[in-house]
Automatic annotation (TrEMBL):
Family matches, as InterPro entries: FkbM_mtfrase
Domain Methyltransferase FkbM: 94-263
PANTHER family in the record: METHYLTRANSFERASE FKBM DOMAIN-CONTAINING PROTEIN, UNCHARACTERIZED DUF13 C.ELEGANS
Source taxon at top rank: Eukaryota
Protein name per the record: Methyltransferase FkbM domain-containing protein
Length: 267
C-alpha cells in the first residue's frame, strides 16, 4: 500500500506567502477569508469519523485498517486536491509517486530516495518538472545499476537507511528476485543531519521493502525528526506485505498521524 504524507498547513502557509498566488486560484468557498488550516480541518473531519467507526467495530483486529484505509482515503481526498494544492503524479516502472511542486521557482527542492530499486524514472520525471534548483539524494544497499542510474542526476549512497545504524537483515533486489542479506544500515537522522547536513527535506520517497515500519515513529510529533529539528514537508511511503506485527505498527502510525494533526494522507 502506498501512502503519501503531506505537511499540509506548512504547504498552504507557504502558498499564501507567495505574491504569485492570485486570489482567483483559492477555493471559491474561501476566497473572502482564506484560512490555511481550513482545508486540513475539512479533510480531517471527513476521514477521522470513518476510520474511528471501523476501529470501534474491530478493536483487536489490525487487518481492518489495511483493508479499509484506501476506501476511506478515496472518499475524503477530493477535499485536498483542488486548484490551491496541485498534486502531480510521477510514474516509474511499476508505481506512481506524488509531489506538490514548489510555487516559487527559485526555491531549492531537496528529494531523498530510500530504496532506489534500479528504477529512477519517477525521479527523472520530477527533475524535468522542477523549474528551479534541486538536489536528489538516493540510498540503496545494492550498488550495481542503482549507482549508475542515480548518479546521472543526483548523489547515490551505497547503504541502507533505517531507524537505527548497524548491520541488519534487509530485503533487497538481486537480479529479478528479492533476497535477505546482512547489510550496513545508517539511521535516517544520522544520514540527514551528519552526512547530508540539512534540516529541511521537500520529499522523501521510501520504498524499503519492509524496513519502513520501524521508521514510522520518526514522522510523529516529538519523534526523532522533531528532536533533531528536521522538517519533512512531504513523504511517499510504500508499506509492503505486512505480518501481524507490521499491521499493528501501521495501525498505530495511521491513527497517531491523524491525532497529531500535522500530516494529511493521500493515496
Amino acid at each position: 500500500m502506498r501512502v503519501n504524507l503531506i505537511f499540509l498547513e506548512l504547504i498552504i502557509s507557504e502558498l499564501q506567502k507567495q505574491d504569485k498566488v492570485p486570489n482567483e486560484n483559492l477555493p471559491s468557498r474561501s476566497k473572502s477569508n482564506f484560512n490555511p488550516p481550513q482545508i486540513f480541518h475539512e479533510w480531517h473531519n471527513c476521514i477521522m469519523p470513518n476510520l474511528t467507526n471501523y476501529r470501534e467495530e474491530n478493536p483487536t483486529n489490525n487487518d481492518w485498517i489495511w483493508k479499509n484505509l484506501p476506501k476511506v482515503m478515496q472518499q475524503c481526498q477530493g477535499i485536498l486536491m483542488n486548484d490551491t494544492i496541485k498534486v502531480d503524479d510521477f510514474r516509474n516502472n511499476d508505481e506512481t509517486k506524488r509531489h506538490i511542486l514548489p510555487l516559487n521557482e527559485d526555491e531549492l527542492t531537496t528529494i531523498i530516495t530510500l530504496g532506489v530499486g534500479r528504477d529512477t524514472v519517477a525521479e527523472e520525471n520530477l527533475l524535468k518538472a522542477l523549474k528551479g534548483p534541486s538536489k536528489f539524494y538516493g540510498a540503496d544497499p545494492i550498488y550495481e545499476i542503482n549507482a549508475e542510474k542515480y548518479n546521472k542526476f543526483g548523489t547515490f549512497f551505497n547503504f541502507g537507511i533505517g531507524a537505527e545504524s548497524g548491520m541488519f537483515n534487509l530485503s533487497v533486489l538481486i537480479g529479478r528476485d528479492y533476497a535477505i542479506r546482512l547489510l550496513p544500515t545508517i539511521s535516517l537522522v544520522h544520514f540527514v543531519k551528519d552526512i547530508l547536513k540539512i534540516n529541511f527535506i521537500d520529499d522523501i520517497w521510501i520504498d524499503n521493502e519492509g524496513a519502513e515500519y520501524n521508521l514510522f515513529p520518526y514522522f510523529l510529533k516529538d519523534g526523532e525528526l522533531d528532536r533533531n529539528n528536521i522538517t519533512v514537508c512531504q513523504c511517499n511511503l510504500e508499506a509492503h506485505s505486512p505480518n501481524n506485527e507490521m499491521k499493528r505498527k501501521f495501525h498505530e502510525f495511521i491513527f497517531q498521524t491523524l491525532n497529531d494533526k500535522r500530516y494529511a494522507l493521500l493515496l
